[in-house]
Design the sequence.
């Protein structure tokens, strides 16, 4: 990796140079602690863009008062090494004051998918902080494309809606979930699972897959979702939700004809909260 930008001005100068050479630019926003899922976003960007900027910024506005912003893992040196190996062109790693300078007071208040009754039920302040920082990053980088993982599916829907509503020119692309060989969705939280919990955790992806197959075969959505919830609870999870939603709006659906449909699940296993989703 050739460059680390600490200021918006330096990043924009590089973007202007690349664009003057005819290059398309991708932005991959992250909060660091990079794993293979993040790196898959860089790989996916190459199909659309010549240059890739990965931002690393632990955004304070998406943490609630009961969430420990200070404890979020910060592994910048290791992250930069991973980005160099994969061939990212640059890293944007601003200080908090660069993103939120003194006197900053403007908010982005998302609606629609941000109020779907999924993750917002458990983290009511989260998506306002996400929308705020992503809107700023998209404007700061002025990239042609931005790439986000489908694992945080509600977040992706919120960002797509926000970018469209605010006429942000950057194309928003979702990248399929990267999974372990047994199907478990890749997540930094997986390291907190005990050996026994890790064996149990694969149940989420199996139930998603089995439920999707049932729905494609004509099963009733409400009945199939209730059966899925029972299986997840029987597998040792504390279920937060298992829902069939419209893939774009995240509105509830009663039949596949109302789709496209996405199945979404969140559940706790021991002290670890896992989320996953699957297209039907």
Sequence:
């Amino acid at each position: 990796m050739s460059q680390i930008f600490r200021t918006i001005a330096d990043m924009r100068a590089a973007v202007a140079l690349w664009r003057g050479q005819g290059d398309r630019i991708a932005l991959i926003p992250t909060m660091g602690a990079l794993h293979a899922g993040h790196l898959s976003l860089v790989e996916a960007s190459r199909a659309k863009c010549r240059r890739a900027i990965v931002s690393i910024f632990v955004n304070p506005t998406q943490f609630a008062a009961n969430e420990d912003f200070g404890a979020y893992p910060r592994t910048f040196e290791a992250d930069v090494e991973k980005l160099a190996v994969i061939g990212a062109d640059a890293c944007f790693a601003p200080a908090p004051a660069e993103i939120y300078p003194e006197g900053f007071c403007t908010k982005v208040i998302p609606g629609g998918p941000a109020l779907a009754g999924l993750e917002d039920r458990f983290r009511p302040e989260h998506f306002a902080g996400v929308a705020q920082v992503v809107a700023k990053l998209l404007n700061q980088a002025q990239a042609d494309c931005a790439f986000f993982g489908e694992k945080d599916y509600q977040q992706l829907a919120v960002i797509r809606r926000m970018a469209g509503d605010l006429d942000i020119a950057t194309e928003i692309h979702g990248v399929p979930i990267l999974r372990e060989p047994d199907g478990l969705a890749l997540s930094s939280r997986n390291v907190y699972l005990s050996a026994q919990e890790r064996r149990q955790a694969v149940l989420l992806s199996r139930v998603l897959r089995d439920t999707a197959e049932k729905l494609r075969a004509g099963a009733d959505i409400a009945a199939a979702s209730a059966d899925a919830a029972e299986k997840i609870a029987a597998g040792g999870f504390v279920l937060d939700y298992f829902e069939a939603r419209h893939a774009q709006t995240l509105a509830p659906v009663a039949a596949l004809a109302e789709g496209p449909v996405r199945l979404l699940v969140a559940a706790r296993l021991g002290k670890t909260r896992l989320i996953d989703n699957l297209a039907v």
